[in-house]
Structures are given as C-alpha cells and as structure tokens.
Amino acid sequence: MDHELGLFVVADGMGGHNAGEVAAGIAVETIARVLRSDHVRTGARLEHALRAANDSILESAAERPECAGMGTTVSAVLALESGCAVASVGDSRVYRWRGGRLEQLTHDDSWVSQLFPEEGPGSEQARERHPMRHVLTEVVGVRPNLEPGFELFDLAPGEAFLLCSDGLHGVLSNERLSACFESGDVRSIATRLVDEAVKRGASDNVTAVVVRRES
User: Fold this and answer.
1) Residue 139 CA neighbour count, 13 Å, CB half
2) Nearest to residue 182, comparing CAs of 99, 125, 124, 109?
3) pLDDT at residue 135 in the model
4) C-alpha angle 53/91/27, rounded to 5°?
5) Please, which residues have CB within 8 angstroms of residue 29's CB and are 6 or more apart in sequence?
6) Residue 15, CB half-sphere, CA atoms under 13 Å: how many?
7) Fewer CB within 10 Å: N-end or C-end of the chain?
8) DSSP assignment of 81-148, as one string?
9) Do 111 and 83 meet the contact criterion of CB atoms below 8 Å apart?
10) Contact, 171 vs 197, CB < 8 A?
11) Contact by Cβ (8 Å): 205, 18
12) Nearest to residue 84, comparing CAs of 46, 135, 110, 55?
C-alpha cells in the first residue's frame, strides 16, 4: 500500500519454493514504482503499471531458473482526483461497500467463472463447491501481453473498498463479508474478516485490505 499515491494492492503469489512470494513482491514494487514515475495519476497508468509488473516477473523468471513459472494474482485500487480506478488479474477481488450493500467490482479470471458466468440462484454456491474452483485462466507473470480487468468508478464520502485474496472470499459468503462491514473502523473490519476466515478453516493465504474515503 502507498497512501501518498492513493494506491492499494493485494497480490497473492503462486509457484514453488517461495517463488510465489517473489512474484507478488515484484508485482507490488513495480506497480508502485511505475505510478511514482508519473505525477499524473490516471486509470490508464494503473493498467500500464500492471502490464509492467507482468513484464518484470517474466524477466526475473527467465533469469532465475528456480522461479520459472511463478506468477501472482493482483487486485488494485488507485484513488484519482475524481473517483478511482480498479484493476485485477486472477481471483483476488475488490468489493465496494456503499449504502449498506457490498458489491463485487472485479471479475475472477478462473475456469469456474467461465463455466458459471451469470449471477443467479445457486451460481455462487456452484462456483464455491466446484472441484476446479482454484484453476485460474490468467495471472500476472505467466505470459506476455497481459490484459488486466479494469474499470473506473465514482467514489463518495463514507464508501469503503475491500481488497482480498481468495483465502478470504473462498470461505466467507457475501452475506458474512457484508455483516463484517456493518460496524467498526477499517482496521477492525479487516481484522474481523481475517479472523473469521481463519476460524472457518481457510487453507490459502488470507489477506484483506479495507480502505474508506472519509471526505
């Protein structure tokens, strides 16, 4: 996270022998570095930063055989002068809390999301229980010419965003995620979310970043 830039990122790495951690670190560092290099913050710069992170991971993997095949999911929010930019690759997500309702803003790059593309009765449960729910169709650092999911959103005072890994949203339903937002400051909400996911048996990395616009 870089509060001065208004940048918030969650990266969930994958790959053997700590390579996933390396990929996640490269992604976060590269995204922040690219955005710092230009004083004009735009949504297009965030897209460019994710593509630069993709290139950096590919270059590092080519130079380090022990890291071959490493990659990472990324979800990112960049505050702009008007609204914010949201970008994602993989199955780390961004949600927005607005008017007492939690809304998923990103789309999972996963096999089951392609199989069950529409929201509807039972679709969320079907995705959560499918044996191939963890198979991703896109990650940062695996192949060239990355096309991140990207969108611009307006932003009103009091609204909050949740950036999280699949270790969190994979075990907590939308109803449980929403319930944790009903009271408390952003730090206590994030702690509550992580604690509940761990108690419910999360086996993957559990990461939650909650940020709120105060004014």
Assistant:
1) 22
2) 99
3) 79
4) 15
5) none
6) 27
7) C
8) SSSEEEEEESS-EEEEEETTEEEE-S---BHHHHHS-S--TTHHHHHHH-TTTT-BS--BTSSSS---
9) no
10) yes
11) no
12) 46
d(C-alpha 50, C-alpha 171), whole Å: 27
Say whether pLDDT at 29 is over 90: yes
Tens of pLDDT, residue by residue over 123-179, are 555 556 544 566 799 999 999 999 999 999 998 888 999 999 999 998 999 999 999
- Domains of the chain from N-terminus onward: 7-109+139-212 (3.60.40.10)
Q: Hey, what are 35's tokens?
A: 């955005």
pTM: 0.89
Could you tell me if 22 and 70 are in contact, meaning their C-beta atoms sit under 8 angstroms apart? yes
Query: Three-state SS for 50?
Result: helix
64 CA to centre of own chain = 26
**Amino acid, single-letter form, for residue 47:** E
Distance CA 66, CA 17 (A): 8
Both structure tokens of 118: 């529409």
Residue-wise burial string across 52-83, b where 16 or more C-beta atoms lie within 10 A, e elsewhere: bbbebbbebbeeeeebeebbbbbbbbbbbeee
Encoded tokens for 7 = 């940048």
Q: Which of 61, 63, 65, 48 is nearest to 146 (CA)?
A: 48
Distance between CA atoms of residues 27 and 72, nearest Å: 8
Higher confidence at residue 201 or residue 151? 151
DSSP 8-state code for residue 14: E
The tokens describing 103, both together, are 């809304």
